[in-house]
Design goal:
The protein is mostly helical. It is about 70% helix and about 0% strand. Strands 1-2 form a two-stranded antiparallel sheet.
């Protein structure tokens, strides 16, 4: 079910992975751990592949991570090779995803052993490192990313002080004493705010009397005709270098907070354009370009869970939502998770692999249907999604004030999007703030309020050094990704 919902969300231009996961998150509240993780992982993986369907069919990426697929995919579509392009996108996605999941399983278990040696001070510094890196999630403007993160901190402080239980920032409203619940926050920020934005876009177009362009369905109808060529085994194997490049680059990008699937896709595409034996044809409608971009963006999904599972730090919005589901199940991600909840950890690993097989099965069967989803008018989708959001928010705790919170957060998210502020730093800061506050207080209290404890151990100094190196390295990596994107747009 998760893959089906995910591919549907990915194939619909304008929606996002976070939108689908946010709408499914309330359902996990009533599920056992295994089904809850299966649902969210399915949406996560399905949506990442689904974005390539509209990218190839309409030259409109369903999600930002599929933007690099447009360069070759749409040109193949216009040549009458759309079926082959869609199949290459699916098989490259599953290949890169599966290989990166194996890397995730190996690295996560290894790093978890090291993480168990961390004391309160080291855990605080790891959280501090994540906080510093929030600026890397800001896209073009680091300053805006830090402001968004600061808003997340402010929202996380609403409620009762964790030590003295004194209400803070509640404005004497009793329903804020327990703080802002995560589900209204996520649904409002990523689902409803996006729908408000789309609604205003429709109103603006109506005001200007603009006609929304309609895609000629004749090309889509011919996608799976008998005359349409299928992807052959030889063509798939012939792209092994590009898929290996995508898997390697995407896995590294996934482990670095802030680079994300979009960065993984464009970096993989750029590296393939430099080192592929068929590099002169990439960008002109080549299978190699699709293979590199799709394996690159899908390869980020497993590794982005490594910081979450090992240190309790979400590396992306998708990882943050999976971490929220784990918290609902009583398994808050932390360095001791491998020790306290081994069954959940290894269930997650198995589900990562199973979801790839389901993605392959569903994708093969439903590509023809999904390729037409981009034609659904927004005036049908918007009220349907808003209705699901309100119901999903209310049923979790049967509290009408949660709906009010969700709508206020949705308005905040709309205003942030309008001002081009990224929302990912906000939600990650919101999740990290309670963890940072708790670890900082424990570290200070156990050292009898001697603040020098933060810099006493060699591990603490190493973590501070790693923070500086990561900030410099990720900044350069993002600059490289932007340069590649700019070069492609010029071409």
């Amino acid at each position: 079910m998760g893959v089906f919902v995910g591919v549907t969300v990915g194939a619909l231009p304008g929606l996002a992975i976070s939108t689908g996961m946010a709408l499914m998150l309330p359902l996990t509240y009533y599920m056992n751990t295994g089904p809850a993780l299966a649902l969210l992982i399915g949406v996560y993986k399905g949506a990442t592949f689904g974005g390539s369907i509209s990218a190839i069919t309409f030259s409109t990426p369903g999600i930002p991570a599929a933007a690099a697929t447009v360069y070759d995919g749409y040109k193949m579509m216009k040549r009458g090779e759309g079926r082959k392009a869609l199949q290459m996108a699916l098989y490259a996605s599953v290949t890169g995803d599966t290989l990166s999941d194996i890397i995730t399983i190996v690295l996560a278990t290894t790093l978890a052993v090291v993480a168990l040696k961390f004391g309160p001070t080291e855990r605080f510094l790891v959280m501090f490192m994540a906080f510093i890196l929030i600026g890397t999630l800001s896209g073009k403007n680091i300053f805006k990313g830090l402001i968004s993160g600061s808003i997340g901190v402010l929202l996380a402080l609403i409620g009762s002080d964790p030590v003295s239980l004194v209400p803070r920032l509640t404005f004497n409203l009793w329903w804020l004493r327990d703080g802002i619940p995560i589900i209204p926050m996520i649904i409002g920020l990523f689902a409803v705010s996006k729908m408000i934005e789309e609604l205003f876009d429709i109103i603006e177009r109506k005001r200007k009397n603009e006609e929304i362009e309609k895609q000629d369905l004749s090309i889509i109808k011919s996608l799976f005709s008998k005359a349409s060529a299928k992807l052959t085994w030889k063509e798939y194997i012939g792209c092994w270098r590009e898929m290996l490049i995508g898997t390697t680059v995407g896995s590294i990008a996934g482990m670095l907070p802030g680079v994300g699937s979009s960065g993984g896709a464009f970096l993989s595409y750029g590296v393939a354009k430099q080192f592929s034996p068929n590099k002169e044809n990439i960008g002109e409608g080549a299978l190699e370009g699709i293979a590199a971009a799709e394996s690159g963006n899908n390869a980020t999904m497993g590794p982005t869970l490594i910081p979450l599972l090992v240190f309790g730090i979400p590396g992306s919005v998708g990882a943050a939502l999976i971490g929220s589901a784990l918290t609902f199940q009583g398994a808050t991600p932390s360095p001791r998770m491998f020790e306290l909840h081994p069954t959940i950890i290894y269930s997650l690993f198995v589900l990562l692999i199973i979801a790839n097989a389901v993605n392959l099965f569903v994708g093969n069967i439903m590509i023809r249907f999904y390729s037409r989803l981009g034609q659904l008018p927004k005036y049908i989708l918007i009220p349907f999604i808003i209705m699901l959001a309100i119901i999903g928010t209310y049923v979790v705790s049967n509290n009408r004030y949660d709906v009010i919170i969700m709508l206020v957060i949705a308005l905040l998210g709309f205003l942030l999007n309008l001002a081009k502020f990224p929302t990912a730093p906000l939600v990650i800061a919101f999740i990290l703030t309670p963890l940072i506050e708790r670890t900082f207080r424990i570290a200070i209290q156990t050292s009898y309020y001697d603040y020098r404890v933060m810099f006493d151990s060699g591990l603490s100094k190493a973590l501070l050094g790693i923070t500086i190196i990561l900030v410099i390295g990720i900044t350069k990596l993002k600059d490289k990704s932007k340069k590649i994107t700019g070069d492609l747009e010029e071409e």
